[in-house]
Specification:
alpha/beta, Rossmann fold, 2 domains
C-alpha cells in the first residue's frame, strides 16, 4: 500500500459459495476500489488515504483467483470476466450502495456489468478501462492465422463456455443498454499499450455525459503508471466529492 495507508479492517463476502477477501477503512459514504486483471488492491491504493481523510468508507477486495480470494469455478489461478463481475456485485450488495466505484482495466468492465444487474452506484471512475473483446478476438485470430470462420467459431465457443454473451460485457454495450447510467469519469493515457486510448474515447462518446481526462507521457507502462498519476487521481477524487446533481 502507499505510505500512510494502515492495514484495513478484514471482512469477506461470497458469490456462489466462493469467498472474496475484503479490506475496509474509514467511515461515511462508501467508495469501492476494483483492481484489474492480475492486480491487487494496493495497485489502486492511492485513493485510500485521501478518501478516508474526506470522510468516506473505502472498501477494496481481491477478485476471484487473485491473492487472498478463493478460486473461481475454473482451475486455480484462473477466472472469467463474469466471475469478476459477480464478485463486485456480491461485495456491493453486502456492504451497501456506492457513492462511487473506482476501477482499473478489467475491473472497470466488471463494475459496469453489475449496473445492468441492479447494483447501485452514484458515479464511476474508470482508469484505463479494458478494450472491447472484439479487439482481442481479432488480435488473437491475426496472431494465429485464423480466418473468419474459425474466429467466429471461437467467439461462439467463448459465449457458451462463459454462459453469457461475451460482447455484452463491453462498456460500450452497457452504455447503450443501461436506462440511467450514472456519471462516469475516465482517465487514460495515449501511451497505453495494454488498453488503447481510443477505447476510452469511444466510451466517452457512447456513455451519456461521460468525462475523459487525458494524461500525457506515461510511456510503455502507462497502463499501470496511471494508477500513481497525480492528475488522474486528483480528477477522480474531485469527481467523487462533487455533488451528483452537479455532474448530470
Amino acid at each position: 500500500m502507499p505510505p500512510g495507508v494502515p492495514a484495513g479492517e478484514p471482512a469477506d463476502a461470497y458469490w456462489d459459495g466462493h469467498r472474496i477477501d475484503v479490506q475496509m477503512w474509514g467511515e461515511g459514504p462508501t467508495v469501492y476500489l476494483v483492481h484489474g486483471w492480475g492486480g491487487c488492491p494496493a495497485h489502486i491504493g492511492m485513493f485510500i488515504k485521501p478518501l478516508i481523510n474526506s470522510g468516506h468508507r473505502v472498501i477494496a477486495f481481491d477478485l476471484p483467483s487473485h491473492n487472498a480470494s478463493s478460486n473461481g469455478s475454473l482451475a486455480p489461478g484462473r477466472t472469467t470476466i463474469l466471475e469478476c463481475a459477480k464478485a463486485v456485485e456480491a461485495v456491493v450488495r453486502k456492504f451497501g450502495p456506492a457513492q462511487a466505484i473506482v476501477a482499473h482495466s478489467l475491473g472497470a468492465k466488471a463494475a459496469a456489468m453489475t449496473l445492468e444487474w441492479g447494483v447501485e452506484a452514484d458515479r464511476l471512475v474508470f482508469l484505463a478501462p479494458m478494450e472491447t473483446f472484439d479487439i482481442y478476438l481479432d488480435s488473437f485470430a491475426r496472431r494465429h492465422g485464423f480466418g473468419p470462420r474459425i474466429r467466429h467459431g471461437l467467439h461462439r465457443y467463448i459465449d457458451k463456455r462463459l454462459g453469457y454473451p461475451l460482447l455484452h460485457t463491453d462498456i460500450e454495450h452497457l452504455a447503450l443498454a443501461l436506462k440511467n447510467p450514472p456519471p462516469l469519469l475516465i482517465a487514460h493515457d495515449p501511451d497505453d499499450k495494454q488498453s488503447s486510448y481510443s477505447t476510452s474515447q469511444m466510451i466517452a462518446e457512447t456513455w451519456p455525459g461521460a468525462q475523459l481526462v487525458t494524461t500525457r507521457g506515461l510511456g510503455q507502462l502507462a497502463h499501470y503508471r496511471i494508477l500513481r498519476n497525480r492528475d488522474a487521481i486528483r480528477a477522480g477524487l474531485d469527481f467523487i466529492q462533487t455533488p451528483v446533481d452537479a455532474l448530470t
